[in-house]
Design a protein that fits this description.
alpha/beta
């Protein structure tokens, strides 16, 4: 059974919120949609365990009212929230959000908005706060997004709807290849017409080849998908192409949006005295491929400390299956080559278990908040 975390869905209550853009939408979505409607859309799929999803802002005319409404729902299957903000150095950021979106694809968004200095400053501010920016922009402005992201490399950016692609043109491929060169840029698999299976498979093949499976995420775009495709066709095509790939359908989203409570691990190992200088030299310039794999395996923070013949490490893990991710890391060719260099510098402590290289340490104290008097 494949677990699903939908990385992009919308709901709205038209008795509470006003969405002017709905006035131009004919047919089925010019009405209210609840969490029950969203959850029921997955009930018809056998072999699927729906865990919940990431709510994304709905271009409401009053974003404060939207914030208040979504937070008031307190629904357990709203796993993370992406709310609306206009990017600038000082912007309104509600507590408890995973990130923000400023719609760049709507008529009110000026061309080249993401290249404005105010926008770049906002991107940098999000990166400093470890918040995600969701980029929903016109397909012809993908290169502008690339230029913006280059100026804020520490910010995690998620390209919505595969760049709003309509055809896999040479311009689209060229722009997406540039975006794929940015390690902090991720892509949601949504937003394209579902009726042409050949087109969808070609798109998935291209995106998989450029971004790899670690930076792609399943997204439905419920209920807006009904304007250009079918919810059922979309999910079935992805299940057919990726099988039950746990990363695509759940784990990548859990890590990116920090859905799970972070876990901290401390461990210890000995260092061979004659290898101390080499070990320091190696870690002064860790290969980018190794650092990337560490992050892809859900490790958000990792520090190693040295004293005499001992090494101590502190690690923060934000994934949902530590053994799964460590097994994935152990299979990574770049990591295997790195360990060939670092392992000879180390040796187990005397009482380490047979299955331990770095030996786990047990926490005995943590500074907590002061008690009220």
């Amino acid at each position: 059974m494949v677990e699903i975390v939908d990385s992009h869905f919308h709901i709205w209550d038209l008795d509470v919120l006003n969405l002017p853009w709905l006035n131009s939408c004919r047919g089925t979505i010019n009405r209210s949609f609840s969490m029950d409607d969203f959850v029921k859309s997955y009930a018809k799929f056998g072999g699927v365990k729906f865990a919940g999803g990431v709510y994304v802002e709905v271009d409401c005319d009053d974003r404060v009212k939207e914030d208040e409404h979504i937070f008031s729902l307190n629904h357990p299957q709203i796993l993370a929230k992406i709310m609306r903000a206009k990017l600038r150095t000082h912007m309104r950021l509600p507590l408890g959000i995973a990130g923000v979106r400023e719609p760049l694809h709507v008529d009110s968004a000026p061309r080249g908005r993401c290249l404005e200095s105010e926008f770049i400053a906002g991107l940098e501010a999000l990166g400093e706060r470890e918040l995600v920016f969701e980029s929903c922009n016109r397909c012809e402005e993908l290169l502008d997004l690339y230029k913006a992201c280059v100026q804020s490399p520490q910010t995690k950016v998620v390209l919505n709807h595969a760049g709003n692609v309509k055809e896999i043109s040479s311009d689209y491929k060229s722009a997406m290849k540039k975006l794929a060169s940015l390690p902090n840029l991720h892509v949601k698999l949504s937003g394209y017409a579902t009726g042409d299976g050949v087109f969808v498979r070609s798109l998935l093949e291209f995106l998989s080849g450029e971004f790899g499976k670690s930076r792609l995420m399943y997204a439905s775009n419920f209920p807006v998908i009904s304007l250009y495709g079918s919810f059922e066709e979309h999910l079935n095509l992805l299940l057919e192409y990726f099988g039950e790939d746990a990363d695509i359908f759940a784990k990548n989203a859990k890590k990116l949006y920090r859905i799970n409570k972070p876990q901290r691990f401390a461990s210890v190992i000995k260092i061979r005295p004659e290898k101390v200088a080499l070990y320091k030299e190696l870690h002064a310039s860790v290969p980018e491929a190794v650092n990337r794999q560490i992050k892809e395996c859900g490790i958000s923070k990792y520090e190693i400390f040295w004293r005499d013949d001992m090494l101590f490490s502190i690690m923060e893990y934000i994934g949902d299956d530590f053994e799964y991710d460590m097994a994935k890391m152990a299979k990574d060719p770049a990591t295997q080559e790195w360990w060939k260099l670092t392992d000879p510098c180390q040796k187990r402590i005397e009482d380490a278990r047979k299955d331990e290289w770095w030996a786990n340490m047990t926490k005995v104290y943590e500074l907590a908040g002061l008690k009220k008097r």
